[in-house]
Amino acid sequence: YKFRDLTIEELKNVSKTYPNFTFSMNTYTFKDGSQKDLLNFSGTVPVKYGNSYNIPIRLWILDSHPFAPPICFLKPTANMGISVGKHVDARGRIYLPYLQNWSHPKSTLTGLIKEMIAKFEEELPLYSLSSSDAARQSELLSYIAKITEGETDLKSSSKTGGKNEGRFNKITVVGAGDLGIACVLAVAAKDVADKVVLLDLSEGAAKGGTMDLEIFAVPDVEISKDFSASADSKVVVLTVNSLGNAQTYLDVIQSNVDLFRGIIPAVSHYSQNAVLLVASHPVEIMTFVSWKLSSFPKSRVIGVGANLDSERFQYILTNLLKAEVLAKDAWVIGEQGEDKVPSWTSCNVVANQTEAMAARNSREKVANRAMEVLKGKGQRSWSVGLSVADLTDSILKDKRKVHSVSTLAKGCCNINSEVFLSLPCILGTSGVIEMVRLEEDPRVQEKLQSSAGSIHDLQQQLKL
Predict the structure, then answer these.
(1) Contact 232, 30 (CB under 8 A)
(2) Its biological function (predicted)?
(3) Mean of the pLDDT values across residues 138-155?
(4) Distance CA 85, CA 28 (A)
(5) In the predicted model, what is the mean pLDDT of the chain?
(6) If both were cysteines, with which of 168, 268, 303, 358 could 283 make a disulfide (CB 3.0 to 4.6 Å apart)?
């Protein structure tokens, strides 16, 4: 356990308040099949719902506690049935606002249990079975035991399951601002996913664009304020940006980091095999932050980067400058904004050095003209939304298409720091499959190294 003393102190407080709990160390099986020995405790919590009831629960403590919330389950006996509701699913998994908003040191295990009791008193999570139902329930106890010891790959016979369950493509968009709604509409228009969940994290009732989505009922789109609605997403798109009163650029970024600290662990927890696609600003730093907070492999955390610029760049070369041969190997890479740079993934072999130099100069002139045209094109929410839909389409359909996206650049172009920059990458269901080799160009490498240096300096000043 990374924070052993803090964890032990928390468990002591639980034991004082709820002496009936028993503590143990057992193996927890995650949804991806990985296993880990974790502390856990089980017992009953007192609930008044007309009469007094003792509700059996089991909580698993992750090794990053207290900075990550525990995993919570009901632990029904043979004569108990699970009442599926907004806080409990059919497998007995417990979902609460307290878990979704978990933030140390404000959030504690005893505070969590108190909220659990309060929510269970509003909606009792278990009910008594008849003798015949209890007999059938006993046949399911082995399955429930596996569930309460972790996620399994066993298929449910519920109506949400079926032959196509493994291929069900679900996307979650986090943030219901203009960009978030643009992403939802673009994904829906391209028919990329079977279901899109829009997580609206704003305070109060639905308003603005979110309300309009509800009014006009876009098919296969669900709007929720509950992180559990994102469960089992294949792609999670992050569009949120803090609107705090920050005074400096560093304050703005730190405000976004603080916002992500409450989001990334939650969405990573509910969708442990997802690809995180970051569209928040600054995209390079927020992709790095998402990678660190999620503990996902680098291949499954990417930023939208220069995908939109690259697509526009290729379009300008092909349709406006009639340089179709150049366009197929042309990319915009590096840092999003003024410091982006055009590059190439291959070059034609020319007979002699003089011709090679002439060809390079000609290509650079065309590229400079294209970049000048590109400067006049702003990145509006709907255009970024279309870019996000393009990327999710390549990921979900395993297209193995090349995109310029923010990826971990360490080891590329003599970059030795952990920074994310836009580079041409082949995308598939597991995110980045392979980085495409760039043509060697000292000026491009110098630009990338300069961007990497400034980004790394900013990252060193952040409090993660």
Answers:
(1) no
(2) Interconverts simultaneously and stereospecifically pyruvate and lactate with concomitant interconversion of NADH and NAD(+).
(3) 44
(4) 25
(5) 83
(6) 303
User: How many other CB atoms are found less than 10 A from the CB of residue 390?
Assistant: 21
How far from chain centre, in Å, is Cα 32? 16
Hunting for tokens 């399955």 — which residue is that? Answer: 143
Contact 263, 240 (CB under 8 A): yes
pLDDT confidence of residue 162: 36
Q: What is the DSSP letter of 129?
A: P
What is each CA distance from 152 to 112, 142, 220, 386, in whole angstroms?
25, 12, 26, 35
Name every residue whose Cβ is closer than 8 Å to that of residue 436 and which is 6 or more positions away in sequence: 345, 402, 423, 424, 425, 426
Q: How many CB atoms lie within 10 A of CB 27?
A: 10
Question: In this structure, which topology does domain 170-303 adopt according to CATH?
Answer: Rossmann fold (3.40.50)
What is the architecture of the domain spanning 4-128?
A: Roll (3.10)
**Alpha carbons within 13 A on the beta-carbon side of 331:** 28
Domains 170-303 and 306-461 share a fold: no
Torsion angle, alpha carbons of 298, 300, 305, 311, to 10: 130
In the structure encoding, which two tokens stand for residue 365, read together?
């002139």
Q: What is the pLDDT of residue 167?
A: 60
Give me the percent of the chain exceeding a pLDDT of 70.
82
Q: Which residue has the higher pLDDT, 319 or 73?
A: 73
Q: Is 78 exposed, middle or buried (0-12, 13-18, 19+ CB in 10 A)?
A: middle
pLDDT of residue 32 exceeding 70, the answer is no
- For residues 402 and 423, is the Cβ–Cβ distance under 8 A? no
pLDDT of 138 strictly over 60: no
Q: Which residue spans within 30-188 are E strands per DSSP?
A: 35-49, 51-61, 71-74, 80-82, 126-128, 170-174
Cα–Cα distance for residue pair 301/295, rounded to 1 Å: 10
The answer to whether 441 and 346 are in contact (CB under 8 A) is no
Question: Cβ–Cβ contacts within 10 Å for residue 414, how many?
Answer: 10
Please state which of the four CATH numbers 3.90.110.10, 3.40.50.620, 3.40.250.10, 3.40.718.10 is assigned to the domain occupying 306-461. 3.90.110.10
Cα 274 to Cα 60, 185, 252, 430: the distances in Å are: 22, 21, 27, 8
Q: pTM here?
A: 0.64
Mean pLDDT for 256-285 is 93
Instruction: Give φ, ψ of 113 to 5 degrees.
Output: -65, -40
339, 318 contact by CB (below 8 A): no
CB of 438 within 8 A of CB of 344? yes
Q: Strand locations in 162-241, DSSP E?
A: 170-174, 195-199, 221-224, 235-238
